[in-house]
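Subject: Sanity check before I submit

Could someone independently write out the structure tokens for this chain? I want to compare against mine line by line before I put it in a report. The sequence has 278 residues.
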Amino acid sequence: MGIIATLVFPPKVASSDAGRAIDGLADDVSELLGRAAGELDSMAEDQPQRLAGAAREWLDDARRITHDIPVVGAALIRAEEGRRLNVRAVRTPHVEPGLRQGLEALEHTAVAIRGLMRSVADASDGDWVEEDSAREVLRDLAEAFRRLAGGADAFGELVRHEGDVQVSLSHADITRLQEAQEGMLAVRARLDSALTEAGPADVVELYAATRATVRRLQHELALDERVRRQLRLLRPRRVPARGAVRRRPPGDWVDPTGPDDKTQVLPALSDGPPEDDP
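---
Independent answer below. Compare away.
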């Protein structure tokens, strides 16, 4: 009876719910980084010694975020399984592969941020926090955290819009992620410069860990990489035999700008973020 009811009264396609859950994961990562950046700015003004206690709290929050990832994955599984038995899904774009790729990228991002917070916590017990130079280090960290937060937030919103078959990706979605990538590139250049300056071993390791995390997120959240992944999901198009003319039945018109029957595809970029160094 339950299966018959599902066929007669099919539920809505759950891809939108999965997209919102994935965006929620991105929001959690972004909120943690943004809050930590604000606290680092405050510490740079006075009491850098507060870093140790704050860093442990950030690490605990980062652990919680990674522990909650299976809940987001369950929402995506429901969307994937629901499509198989949902007659409503027949005429909707197959966006679940793109959502899964987005979840994987954000899962890797969350794990990388947890590792970064571990590095901050480990370095926070060093004597360098008592020196005047600690203020500049904290400001550099705050700027890096803000840029990473912007990248996670923009990427999560883009994935959410991909999951909503009623919403088309806008130029603003693409622009936000491009600007976030440019911001991460700029802060990485600053970290490269800081690493060339002599300093305590704890500070050098902290800068190196931050730079490595920025580099990782540049790859995971890269717009051009997502375009390539999305394009690989497309089914090969059949090429009609030479001389054959395919006629479309009257009234059977398809909007060429809309998503195809496999997945929504992001527009290709002419000038994407620069390739990462090996």
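---
OP: Matches mine. For the report I'm noting this point. The longest helix spans residues 15-45.
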